[in-house]
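Hi there, hope your week has been kind to you so far. For a while now I've been wondering how a particular protein folds. I'm sending you its amino acid sequence along with the backbone structure tokens. Could you read through the record and tell me how the tokens relate to the sequence? Take your time with it, there's no hurry, and the full record follows here.
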Amino acid sequence: MKNEKQGKEVLIDSELLRKLIVGIGEVSEITGVPTRKLRYWEEKGIIKSEKGSDGETRKYNYLNIKKILSIKELVEEGYTLDAAAAKVEKNIETFFKTFSELMSDDNNYKK
């Protein structure tokens, strides 16, 4: 069991994911979503950036990059932007709830 837990920690390095911050230009390259569209999505409150040290540069964390990719995919499938954003938010909420329950069950199992 100890090796299995260590394997999970390696696969899900939450500390690394918290530190993974990417500029808007790189996010655009990664996702294929133009920077102008990313700014629009942020204005609508669909995604959130972290202001860079210069106060101007938008930077995005891992979760927002995943959100952008998921929203883009749903929009390409025919969803409206608002419907895609709502669906992605619900999916993220469900994921975190399920993940928390699994980790809780995993910890209870090992006791």
